[in-house]
Amino acid sequence: MAPVAGSSFFQGARLPEQRLVEGVAFPAVLVPTGGPPGPGEGSLDEFLSAVRSERASRVEPLLREAGAVLLRGFPARTAADFDAAVEAFGYEELPYVGGAAPRTNVVGRVFTANESPPDQKIPFHHEMAQIPTFPAKLFFFCEVEPKSGGETPIVLSHYVYKRMKENFPEFVEKLEKHGLIYTRVLGEGDDPSSPIGRGWQSTFLTKDKSVAEERALKLGMKLEWTDDGVKTVMGPIPAVKWDESRGRKIWFNSMVAAYTGWKDARNDPVKAVTFGDGSPLPADVIEACGKILEEECVAVPWQQGDVLLIDNWAVLHSRRSFEPPRRVLASLCK
């Protein structure tokens, strides 16, 4: 059902999982004005047209205020629909170069989300925080909702920084001074059994070692070739950033994810991330940080057709384990 002339295609909604953070509902939720369309009502074209016309006036102010916007009940049902929706938002695509997760291109600028096994949790992180070129925004889309579990919990980065600063001031001071070094060992091809199983050929989008070295160099990443793969060393790189647009510090890192989750046949998570001066991170503080992330997060169960738009400067995300089937797709934007 299309809204009457002069009104908005989108209206705000409340979900039981939302929480108020500093007076703002997180995440923001938009649903169709007048309720979800019935069978045969509401077209994808209407939705795409509304995205184009109301992105700047309706959606982006909410994204800036809340950090994440969930679009629910709209007529996007397939990967191709999602690709068209991402295009309608008009953000420039960011190629997935240097990221760790195994992903497959589905259509256009749409990829699978991390393809690691369903029994594995993916810890909280900012997308591609371990390299200097990261997306400003990312979209997730639920094509097939999980049988159970499989939420994508989100948490506000500035609030995590605030709590860590209150609880571990000396740790945060050292982190801000030295940053972090991320180390990861990659095979040649992808390892689908690992959450960080992306091989060097798909990481750098080439089969040529010299091209991989050029692309790594542009990222500020050092490569050390081995008989069956390569060790990548990234950093020191800041773990706390300044969000210029909002005027606040953010917990912009993959520290907990690397320390607890970068584990497979090639990688020891404790060695995967250190302070920028090479000294080890304290396990108790990492554990406490993980608890803070869980305490402050919001996990909205996926419904088929959900589109979640995340400001990567404001929000960390993760993935809970799940019972298949589940198919969540992603797209990264500059």
Automatic annotation (TrEMBL):
This is TauD/TfdA-like domain-containing protein. Pfam families: TauD (PF02668). Residues 48-329 form the TauD/TfdA-like domain. Keywords: Oxidoreductase. The keyword Transferase does not apply. InterPro entries: AlphaKG_dependent_hydroxylases, TauD-like_sf, TauD/TfdA-like. Coiled coil: none annotated. The lineage of its organism: Eukaryota, Viridiplantae, Streptophyta, Embryophyta, Tracheophyta. GO terms for molecular function: oxidoreductase activity.
